[in-house]
């Protein structure tokens, strides 16, 4: 039987670390604070906001939401973003994306203070991830995958790791984080020839394609570690990952469920970034 790698266990361990980190800041008179910028009220954004707020407040991080109208102009949006960016009490900024059609994200990517950029929007942080400079902030989801692997003691050095997906949000930065840990990384995508064979040759398989249950049992080598980043809805309307969990679990050595896997760790990574940002901005790191 495979080991089920649960996000809740990873998050619980991270909570201890977060409480310690917040304690150090508070002792020095620093109240860690995250600024969430939300345009409109998309249900996805509201759900993520609720989860992030709960996670932050549970460890003593203040959450301040700037809610902007759905039809806001580019100029007003940039002004509101700048106000959060320039606020000395705010240590981390989270902007919900995608933005409404009339708004261009590019200007705020270059505007955001890289030391407050807890979700890797700034080209500075993207460059740091790709150059292996750990002083930057990686996107939360790839880092959540790394937290899961570390928590369950999965060694990466010299291991054959296959990542399915090459987006800038998950696949590519994740490949860089794995490479930094000396894994031998293969990135697969829609044009990959013999996807199943490439996946089968992996000791660690990470799926971030966004295709419900596409990873069948014959994609997975016996005993392989399988991490499922996908969040999809199946034909029955239930939440599911990219991995056909019931078919793959008997073959895999360890596997993350969906829901309850990687997704349960991302807001803990966000909180970790706020604590680190508060440390940077106050000259403690
Ligand atoms: P995306 O659509 O931007 O990228 C998907 C990538 O997968 C592309 O590079 C594409 O080439 C590849 N791909 C798609 N179908 C494929 C196929 N059939 N075979 C091989 N490669 C294929 O998506 P994204 O933003 O990178 O997100 C990927 C998945 O992760 C989605 O399900 C998304 O909902 C989920 N996600 C989860 C979290 C989390 O917290 N767990 C966060 C962000 C995204």
- The count of strands amounts to 11
Distance between the termini: 43 Å
Largest sheet: 6 strands, parallel
Determine and state the CATH class of the largest domain: Alpha Beta
Count of DSSP H/I helices: 10
**Rounded Rg:** 19 Å
Number of domains: 2
Quick description:
This protein has 285 residues and is an alpha/beta fold. The chain has helices at residues 7-27, 43-58, 74-86, 106-111, 123-131, 140-151, 171-180, 195-200, 245-248, 266-281; strands spanning 3-4, 33-39, 62-68, 92-95, 160-164, 184-188, 204-207, 225-228, 232-233, 239-240, 254-255.
Question: What do you see in this structure?
Answer:
With 285 residues, the protein is an alpha/beta fold. It folds into 2 domains: 29-113, Leucine Dehydrogenase, chain A, domain 1 (Rossmann fold, 3-Layer(aba) Sandwich); 140-262, NAD(P)-binding Rossmann-like Domain (Rossmann fold, 3-Layer(aba) Sandwich). 40% of the residues lie in helices and 15% in strands. It is built from 10 helices and 11 strands. It has helices spanning 7-27, 43-58, 74-86, 106-111, 123-131, 140-151, 171-180, 195-200, 245-248, 266-281, and strands at 3-4, 33-39, 62-68, 92-95, 160-164, 184-188, 204-207, 225-228, 232-233, 239-240, 254-255. The strands form 3 sheets. The chain has a 6-stranded parallel beta sheet. A hairpin with a 5-residue loop joins strand 9 and strand 10 (239-240). Helix 1 runs parallel beside helix 10 (266-281), helix 2 crosses helix 10 (266-281) and helix 6 packs across helix 7. The longest helix is centred in the first third of the chain and has 21 residues, at 7-27. The model has no long low-confidence stretch (mean pLDDT 97). The structure holds nicotinamide-adenine-dinucleotide. The site of nicotinamide-adenine-dinucleotide has 25 residues, from loops.
């Amino acid at each position: 039987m495979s080991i089920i790698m649960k996000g809740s266990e990873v998050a619980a361990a991270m909570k201890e670390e977060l409480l310690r980190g917040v304690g150090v800041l508070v002792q020095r008179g620093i109240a860690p604070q995250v600024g969430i910028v939300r345009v409109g009220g998309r249900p996805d954004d509201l759900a993520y906001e609720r989860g992030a707020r709960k996670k932050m407040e549970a460890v003593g991080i203040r959450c301040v939401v700037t809610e902007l109208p759905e039809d806001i102009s580019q100029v007003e949006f940039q002004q509101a973003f700048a106000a959060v960016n320039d606020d000395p009490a705010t240590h981390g900024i989270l902007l919900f994306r995608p933005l409404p059609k009339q708004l261009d994200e590019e200007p705020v990517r270059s505007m955001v203070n890289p030391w407050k950029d807890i979700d890797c929007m700034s080209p500075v942080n993207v460059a740091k991830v790709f150059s292996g400079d750990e002083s930057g902030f990686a996107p939360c989801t790839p880092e959540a995958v790394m937290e899961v692997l570390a928590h369950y003691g999965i060694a990466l050095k010299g291991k054959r790791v296959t990542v399915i997906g090459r987006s800038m949000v998950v696949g590519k930065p994740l490949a860089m984080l794995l490479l930094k840990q000396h894994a031998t990384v293969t990135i697969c995508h829609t044009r990959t020839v013999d996807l199943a064979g490439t996946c089968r040759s992996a000791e660690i398989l990470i799926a971030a394609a966004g295709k419900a249950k596409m990873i069948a049992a014959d994609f997975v080598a016996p005993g392989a570690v399988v991490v499922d980043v996908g969040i999809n809805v199946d034909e029955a309307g239930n939440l599911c990952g990219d991995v056909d969990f019931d078919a793959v679990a008997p073959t895999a050595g360890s596997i993350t469920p969906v829901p309850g896997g990687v997704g349960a760790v991302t807001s803990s990574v966000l909180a970790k970034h706020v604590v680190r940002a508060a440390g940077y901005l106050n000259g403690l790191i």
